[in-house]
Amino acid sequence: MSLTEAERLHSQLTRFEDMFPGYRTEIVEGSIVMSPVRPHHGKTIKLVWEALEAQLSDDWDFTTDVAFLFDGETEFCPDLAVLPRPEVEANRSVYAPDLVELVVEVVSPGSVRRDYDLKPVRYAGRGIRHYLVFDPYRAECVTFWNPGAAGYLGRDTIPYGGKLTVETEVFGRLTVDLSGLPVDAG
Fold first, then answer.
1. What does R_g of the chain's alpha carbons equal in angstroms?
2. If we measure between CA atoms, which residue out of 47, 163, 23, 54 comes closest to residue 104?
3. Are 6 and 69 in contact (CB under 8 A)?
4. Which residues lie closer than 8 Å to 171 by C-beta, 6 or more apart?
5. pLDDT tens digits, residue range 35-69?
């Protein structure tokens, strides 16, 4: 599937989001998946975005909830993805995942399996070097690094309350203060 075809399909999917406010739509292994989004979700994205943005050069920028086409049956819309600034400035609705240097997902009640099991394999398979999962229900961040064909070879879990440090080849050392991230105690 070409990006133009994918952009057309994604445009049709965004109608679902318009019809069901508070839900995010992705295509996962050929199925349309709608996930509810809660306030902790958005606040986590905002805080992580701000922390990373302060550390990146002007050559890089962010997207959120924009489609990345993996194949004809899978299109993920990461909560946050870091791409070269000219790509973000192109303002497309669909991008190739090969452009992503770092991806962030925030766990929601319906996304646990996708965020921890499906996405690491797909993201690593496309060579995305760093994948960060922020989990307000477990109060922890899981970092995936060293991508391989079957998934990431490295994985660390850092509890909320301290600092997350990610050593990257492209950006250098990135840190995120985990002490102010929202936690869903329920």
1. 16
2. 47
3. yes
4. 55, 56, 57, 60, 101, 102
5. 655 567 789 999 999 999 999 999 999 998 788 88
User: Alpha-carbon dihedral of residues 22, 110, 117, 11, nearest 10 degrees?
Assistant: -30
> CB–CB of 116/136 below 8 Å?
no
Cα–Cα distance measured from residue 107 to residue 50, given in angstroms and rounded to the nearest whole number = 19
pTM higher than 0.85: no
Position with higher pLDDT, 185 vs 64: 64
The first and second tokens of residue 61, run together, are 């920028």
Residue 117 one-letter amino acid: D
Let me know: does 25 contact 12? Beta carbons within 8 Å.
no
At residue 135, the 3 state secondary structure works out as strand
